[in-house]
Amino acid sequence: MRGCAILGNIMTLHITNGDAASSALSDAEIKGTMLSWDDVLHDGPYTSFYPERSFNEIRADFIDMSGWESYSKALKRLNQRDKQLQQSIEAKDDIVIWNTHELFDQLHLLNICHNMSQWQADISQVYIVFLPQLLPSSALCHDDLQEAYQNRQPLSVEQIQWSQRIWLTLCSHQHQGLNQLSQIPLAGLPFMQNALKRLMQEFPWAQDGLSLTERRILEAIDSGADTPVKAFKYVREREAIPFMGDVSFFDTITRLTSAPESLVFSKSQQPLSLSHPAQKQSLHQQLKVSPLGHQILSRRKSWLDHNPFERWIGGFQLCPGHYWEYIEGELRPYANNWGPLD
Question: How confident is the model at residue 50 (pLDDT cuts 50, 70, 90)?
Fold first, then answer.
């Protein structure tokens, strides 16, 4: 194993889940070029009805519509990211994927492995580091990261194949395939099974039509964590493995306040747009659960019956007449759908 960034003509590219993780590696004096793979893949589409559109075009469109970044900037960033990885593969650089146990990272791993499969890449110089902690984390000191780097393992063909199978399952909306994959051992992917189970819990639950995050937001507000910032802390503390960043979380609150029959009211009685820079003052605005929200929280009603919505979750498209619901650990077609789902 090579323990330095440059050996002869060989360089090292480190793939992380964002700038904070990259900084943590640099602070630990792990040498090499850092590449952030920081797309929020638990939200938004992976595919399009227009086959000529690339994955990056689809994601850039979603990022733009979410108000996070303009289409042109997002597309340029995603294309440059892919190009940098391809160039490192062609140059036979060492490539190290730093992968933590959170859903955010597990979906990145699927995306990276799918790309390598599509490119028919030579993976002989590709390595992976599995970390059972978030990165950065106070539980990981510099010596821990150095040791993890020294113990990196070659990425295997089996890991690529499993990742490709899971990725294609998500892209093709195969709920039965996802149910199966979440229940079987996935060789070489130690964190994937739990991550898939957590992804499935973001679908509407059969009892109330809420995702797990939406239900916890209502519980947070109802228990006194009644601003977006307080609710974020409340929900994050109750996640076994936190994965959702503040922007996605605040967008979820925005959906709850802006629905035709909203579950959450703001003090101003106006819909919130918490991810927009001009709305930062709303992050400390007091919130309260609506009467309908209380009925749904007590599972006397289902939000699916009051809020026909369209949303993409982990590549799955949910829209009126075509919903999946989470029940007893698996996804099933919603009883009131208009037609069959896969």
Answer: confident
Bridge partners of 100, per DSSP, are 131
Q: Is the pLDDT of residue 87 over 60?
A: yes
H or E element that contains 16:
strand 12-16
Q: How far apart are CA 107 and CA 40, in angstroms?
A: 9
* Residue (of 174, 202, 230, 238) closest to 325 by Cα position: 202
**Per-residue burial over 187-225, b = 16 or more CB atoms within 10 Å of its CB, e = otherwise:** ebbebbbbbbbbbbebbbbbebbbbbbbbbbbbbbbeeb
How far apart, in Å, are the Cα atoms of 23 and each of 16, 44, 136, 249, 293? 10, 27, 8, 24, 41
pLDDT at 4: 39
Whose CA is closest to 109, among 94, 99, 119? 99
* Omega cis (within 30) before 136: yes
* pLDDT, tens digit (0-9, with 9 covering 90-100), for 236-280: 999 999 999 999 999 999 999 988 899 999 876 655 666 554 466
Give the whole-angstrom CA distance, residue 123 versus residue 126. Answer: 5
Distance CA 314, CA 301 (A): 26
